[in-house]
Amino acid sequence: xxxxxxxxxxLRPVTLETGVNRYAEGSCLVSFGQTKxxxxxxxxxxxxxxxxxxxxxxxxxxxxxxPRATHTRGRREAASGKQSGRTQEIQRLIGRSLRAVxxxxxxxxxxxxxxxxxxxxxxGTRTAAITGAxxxxxxxxxxxxxxxxxxxxxxxxxxxxxxxxxxxxxxxLDLDYxxxxxxxxxxxxxxxxxxxxxxxxxxxxxxxFSRAEFDRLFALAHGGCETLFALQRQAIGx
Amino acid sequence: xxxxxxxxxxLRPVTLETGVNRYAEGSCLVSFGQTKxxxxxxxxxxxxxxxxxxxxxxxxxxxxxxPRATHTRGRREAASGKQSGRTQEIQRLIGRSLRAVxxxxxxxxxxxxxxxxxxxxxxGTRTAAITGAxxxxxxxxxxxxxxxxxxxxxxxxxxxxxxxxxxxxxxxLDLDYxxxxxxxxxxxxxxxxxxxxxxxxxxxxxxxFSRAEFDRLFALAHGGCETLFALQRQAIGx
Amino acid sequence: xxxxxxxxxxLRPVTLETGVNRYAEGSCLVSFGQTKxxxxxxxxxxxxxxxxxxxxxxxxxxxxxxPRATHTRGRREAASGKQSGRTQEIQRLIGRSLRAVxxxxxxxxxxxxxxxxxxxxxxGTRTAAITGAxxxxxxxxxxxxxxxxxxxxxxxxxxxxxxxxxxxxxxxLDLDYxxxxxxxxxxxxxxxxxxxxxxxxxxxxxxxFSRAEFDRLFALAHGGCETLFALQRQAIGx
Amino acid sequence: xxxxxxxxxxLRPVTLETGVNRYAEGSCLVSFGQTKxxxxxxxxxxxxxxxxxxxxxxxxxxxxxxPRATHTRGRREAASGKQSGRTQEIQRLIGRSLRAVxxxxxxxxxxxxxxxxxxxxxxGTRTAAITGAxxxxxxxxxxxxxxxxxxxxxxxxxxxxxxxxxxxxxxxLDLDYxxxxxxxxxxxxxxxxxxxxxxxxxxxxxxxFSRAEFDRLFALAHGGCETLFALQRQAIGx
Amino acid sequence: xxxxxxxxxxLRPVTLETGVNRYAEGSCLVSFGQTKxxxxxxxxxxxxxxxxxxxxxxxxxxxxxxPRATHTRGRREAASGKQSGRTQEIQRLIGRSLRAVxxxxxxxxxxxxxxxxxxxxxxGTRTAAITGAxxxxxxxxxxxxxxxxxxxxxxxxxxxxxxxxxxxxxxxLDLDYxxxxxxxxxxxxxxxxxxxxxxxxxxxxxxxFSRAEFDRLFALAHGGCETLFALQRQAIGx
Amino acid sequence: xxxxxxxxxxLRPVTLETGVNRYAEGSCLVSFGQTKxxxxxxxxxxxxxxxxxxxxxxxxxxxxxxPRATHTRGRREAASGKQSGRTQEIQRLIGRSLRAVxxxxxxxxxxxxxxxxxxxxxxGTRTAAITGAxxxxxxxxxxxxxxxxxxxxxxxxxxxxxxxxxxxxxxxLDLDYxxxxxxxxxxxxxxxxxxxxxxxxxxxxxxxFSRAEFDRLFALAHGGCETLFALQRQAIGx
Lengths: 238, 238, 238, 238, 238, 238
Prior knowledge:
Six copies of one chain form a homohexamer. Chain A is an alpha+beta fold. Chain A is built from six helices and nine strands. In chain A, a hairpin with a 7-residue loop joins strand 1 and strand 2. Chains A, B, C, D, E, F: Homohexameric ring arranged as a trimer of dimers.
């Protein structure tokens, strides 16, 4: 029934490759099927002005898409002179999601920027970015501890994200582009390893959706994130 | 327990005043306690280029905040030269929410722009804007039918929105600013009169939240929207 | 003869309502007939860099128009990414006019920003803004004295403004939009309570105008401002 | 008494040199003492979209200042990414002033752009620009008639402009920078050859000014413009 | 003597991998040692307005660098709101270089955009981009011929580029970052397969350079490009 | 053969007039035939943030073109809100060229900005700008020494620039616009008085060019610059 012949609760093949950038303190190339996002974690020993002197650090994210990451070429945001509303919405979500599992005081007065650049898009770029960003961030924090910069681990939990949707009236896990573009409803769940909810975004696209549908989406997301948490631990060797 | 002495499931006093702008085809000044949003619905007989000739219309929204709508003066977005990510995120949500209850083909090749300007903010401006925007839109569509421009009513349902959150570990309805700024979790629900879900946004602010908390937030929102639907019908005299 | 049946020297009904914003140090909703401008006076205890350490304060103004303040919807300046030349010209005029009646040394090293937002426009928005801004500013300065922040009153005089024009070859006071859009000449006078001139702007729109016409416009403005000064004093209870 | 030893009603040496640009349809290098403005009149056979098909033409102006036109280097507006409020205010004034003496229907469906670039500034750049722009425009229109593009002369009158101000309590004509920066009041008058008023802008800088002072400024401006009209006629050989 | 222990006339390991993007008509991941640039060739069946109806096509390029492509994180150009002068200079060079080997009439009324995104930078990104862009372009044109869109091959020649510089007073081929940042002179040569020169850019960085040094740089570039031409032919299977 | 009847190695008449701006520390109006560029050198006793406290100064350049410097009016960059890629490329070249002959440590912690504004363009504006900028800079540095601000001369050499091209298959010196717009190849050489090369930019416009052609262009440039060096020395009275 699904264009990819997956069962409703089946993820696409997911890979999380670390050490893909020679300069970044942490990095991860995350693939969910044909969706590929390159995440780098950059540590800088200074903070934005509004955070200085408060005895804590900051984690923030930026998101971008290469112009030909998609079926038809999109306009380069650097050329059009501004980031779209969609881009800003996504990077705000990524930043919030990662901060939910970091003890900013333990991080100290430094900033980690998670650059999430979509090399190729086939649905689910924001959830892939969050899932990969945790790996890049964990790698960077491991590096800082190895270097003796950090004494303790500021990471308090794992965080991963997955999209679900109602496609041809059936709730399914991990929408690809073909499903996403004709789904009746679309949702993104950001969950922690310890089982709490960081963020839920659910939108009726073609029609409103029911409470029963929502509950099923939630259950699918819960199962999908369990798999992602295992892959994340494996990627960073824990 | 709540700073306003409200019970957990109690809305602030809500008013929806129509006819507040002499030029707009529809308008509504919506108040949720001290939060006041002026919404105008402007009908234009032309469409953005990408929608022309498709036999349908469009409903879109813009959102703004007067500089001193808040405790301390914020920078005027027109002066800073761009709309913030928050502004864009909110106006995209308002547009999506209203389009969910409009038959765009029945609207014909015209556009309705819902301008939501926050005169005073005390929490919940986006949900107040959606709730008031439905009233302004319904008024404008009534006007178009009275003028004979529209033969049928493109409105397919009511839509309203409300925020809920976990404040001091208790789920509560309709957060004011004081609650919002220290809530553990924050959510916005956009629901239709016929009971389906248009959009859910739920975010853990200070900590992740549990499934049980989420279910309670959902129940509060459901109850709150029932009250809002009745007030909307009353405001437009149906 | 005038579309509104007013006599040539007759103002529209003018109201100046104070205390209309719960956060601002001073505020005024000013109406000249159907023209409505919301003015807030915001006091901030810091100055722009070029003024710091000079032992004086600053008064500045910003002006904006809600998109549907006018007959047809105008583009939102925050969305178009810049303020128009007209907007900048008006806000510079408002700032200059108010500074003319403030002793900036007596104000101390703080800044008052007068935000003038046009809720509905029917001609004369800039002169209404100036007239209302004086009331908002006076309220804010009264508040600062009550709070003990200021020992003396930095206000040295009243200031008010009114438009006049040549409409169908007759000089008339306080143009509404219908008159303004077909007037042969258009002028704005900013005068002080003690009788001196702060600013005159007079423009031939359809034709040049004569010295005799100008003198008559001046006399009308003088009379109109006398009424406005009385209303201002009444509004702030002096 | 004046820093330049001029009498109160004495202009600086004024020159109007035509034919200073080999490409422009008309051009004029205007000097008022050390103030030097290069004006070019460019004729284009197309109109801005909002004017097309209305059977008339348009005259518009742009104004700029070379970065080192002033005592200390100013920031290049092209580098800062926007034109200042002052620049926009001035170019709007120049455009309005020239349109006041052009029959736009007789001009036909074409646009004349008057570029006024300040090579060196010593006060009075906007009035010098208007005075020189008339010469450049007249030259361009003469050229169009010689070429047979225009059958009749769209110019209906002369227009010139001059600044006056109250300097050390004395009304004086044609302020230079030293006077301008310490004047109590400052004004610009735009007058036509036939004696009517196109625009008056008068501002109290250090204090308000009186009606008697204003009348004296007006008289000075009237005399100064008479001289400018004669120089303009001489410059274009009429 | 070289930090990388290469001989003066030795290239870094160069790879040209095609088919790296599933959507683009042509693509190439080019590596010069640690410098990695992803190039996609996007074919669009419309032209910029100024080229329409002239019976020819267009080839253009855009260039970008991921924020952490470099040792320290650079600011994202989409976030800063404009492309730097350096970026614009490079993308203009890439476009010119590729157009030099395309018969634009044979291309027909379509545009090919070459997006060159630097994944990792270690010197020589612009020359790597040109070299890889030729491969991506050739692949896209091959694809258009296979699809029957093009009857003839618009490619008239190969083009490749390489940097050379004077490092510690010795002319060397293919500078890496460490050499580039301390070189006395730096140059880029763009040459065609048939031996003609498309572009030379040579700059004295720490000192001017002599004619003899320039001649040696030229000879090195000539040799390096011979190798690149062979690798290009191999990459596209010719 | 050349449109201007010049021999292949003949410069246009070149003039370098100093002292053309009453405020700038140094200035030069440079003409190459009908190409006219006004250069001012502005000395400021502060540096950009990234250069402070390093015990050295900075020399930078900005470039602009008046809208009607060209055959048809170009858009004003200040109005379009950004500098074109061409403008940025040129001003970066001018800055690099002049820094090549300045001892930045001897300059001390101050900045010289060379504003190069094209009054009229007929080909070769960037090379005229460099040639004139050296004169303006030398004048400013002479002034600083006369004032006692500088003890030694930071100028280490002369620098001049000239364009050459292949026009109708013949290498020629100093292209005017008519030649430039149809040349097969175009190049700019920036050379020092002592015979070293600062910058070479050579581009095939209609076709690639050969090594023999390049060598001839180089020889022409060498001869042309000798003349320019003599004119520069004469202009500053050395």
